[in-house]
Amino acid sequence: MPRHESVLDAIGRTPLIRLARLGAGLPAPIYLKAEFLNPGMSVKDRAALAMVLAAEESGALRPGGTIVEGTSGNTGIGLAIVAAQRGYRCVVVLPDKTSPDKVAVLRAYGAQVILTPATRPAEHPEQVRNLARGISDRTPGGWLADQYDNPANPHAHVVGTGPEIWQQTQGRITHFVAGIGTGGTISGTGTYLKKVSDGSVRVVGADPRTSVYGGGDGSPYAVEAIGHYVHPETARDVWPLSYDEAVVDRIERIEDRESIEVMHRLAREEGLLVGGSSGTAVAAALRVARDASPDDLVVVIAPDSGRGYLSRYFNEDWLLAMGFRDGDGSGRPAFADR
Ligand code: PMP
Asked: What is d(CA 240, CA 59) in angstroms, rounded to the nearest whole number?
């Protein structure tokens, strides 16, 4: 067992866990990369640490400085952990719809939290990213992490997640499946896996059905932290630099209902309490494994823990209000028999 000098050394090197029950009867095995076992309970600890180290290296972040980021949660938690351990201040700007649980976690790590209306248009100075940029500009020693356009984000997966998966599968992986938020995970991991396999590993994106990454119309969906929901005509103007479309061979489009159903099955049949984007990714991985051969091996990323969503995807009142239950009183998902 490893012995660490700080919590930062505990980031990464997450296990692969076989989905023995959900994948039963499918031609190829599916292994889940358990990113919820990172200290901040998400894959974003990796990017947060990598971005801070790169900024220290370049001199953009100096001792006594302030880390600033606009985020919907997990990146902020990762940055708050790194800030606490390395002695920086941390200011996180969040849309006001963010779950109170995540706000409380950030404050517990000592981060300063600023909430701004989620409905502000992209050009408004109080929109999440603009407000974060303004704060970092006005704060002496301020540094904006900027995960959407920061190359250290995908690079964390080129040097971490990708090599880990290759070693853990002894080079047997044939398909890699992940959701797309900033695109850092899929682009960095996919780049490494393609390089090391001479291009043979297939990279499959998992996207909410109406998200524009997979060709949707940009209308809203329930799963948090993945996909892109701007007008399709302007989508490419705001494509994050962290997302390298060329690495992705195809995108599976997944309905909210299917994501939530798979998330519930992961908890109840595999004992894996994961978030909504893990449901989306595993739903896509099940399709991939169904079409695969016995020589194939599928690896899917589970980006975060279900603990952050107890008042949402695991709450009957929320599910009912959102139309994810038939309301027949059985307590079973409306889509369970379909
Ligand atoms: N799932 C969750 C829960 C996340 O917080 C994120 C990060 N936005 C992702 C998936 C997507 O990861 P990435 O930003 O690396 O594309």
From this structure: 24
ipTM tops 0.85: yes
- pTM (2 decimals)? 0.94
Find out whether the beta carbon of 184 lies less than 6 Å from any atom of ligand 1. yes
CA distance 222 to 280: 11
Determine how many CB atoms are found less than 10 A away from the CB of residue 322: 15
**DSSP calls for 210-225:** T-TTTT------S--S
- C-alpha 178 – ligand 1 centre gap (Å): 9
Q: CA torsion sign, 12 to 175 to 155 to 178?
A: negative
Is 183 close to ligand 1, i.e. is its CB under 6 Å away? Answer: yes
pLDDT per residue as tens digits for the range 280-325: 999 999 999 999 999 999 999 999 999 989 989 999 999 999 999 8
Q: How far apart are CA 43 and CA 161, in angstroms?
A: 9
Count other Cβ atoms within 10 Å, centred on residue 73.
25
Question: Which of 32, 41, 182, 266 should be mutated for ligand 1, with most atoms under 8 A from CB?
Answer: 182
Say how far apart CA 210 and CA 242 lie, in whole Å: 21
Question: How far apart (Å, rounded) are the C-alpha atoms in residues 227 and 218?
Answer: 9
Tokens of 152: 């250290």
Indicate which residue's Cα is closest to atom 12 of ligand 1.
Answer: 181
Catalytic residue among 33, 44, 102, 194: 44
- 303 to each of 23, 42, 46, 113, 209, how far by Cα in Å? 19, 5, 11, 23, 19
What does the alpha-carbon distance between residue 285 and residue 288 come to, in Å, rounded to a whole number? 5
- CA 186/CA 171 separation, integer angstroms: 18
Say how far apart CA 145 and CA 211 lie, in whole Å: 25
SS (H, E, C) 21-80: CCCCCCCCCEEEEEHHHCCCCECHHHHHHHHHHHHHHHCCCCCCCEEEEECCCHHHHHHH
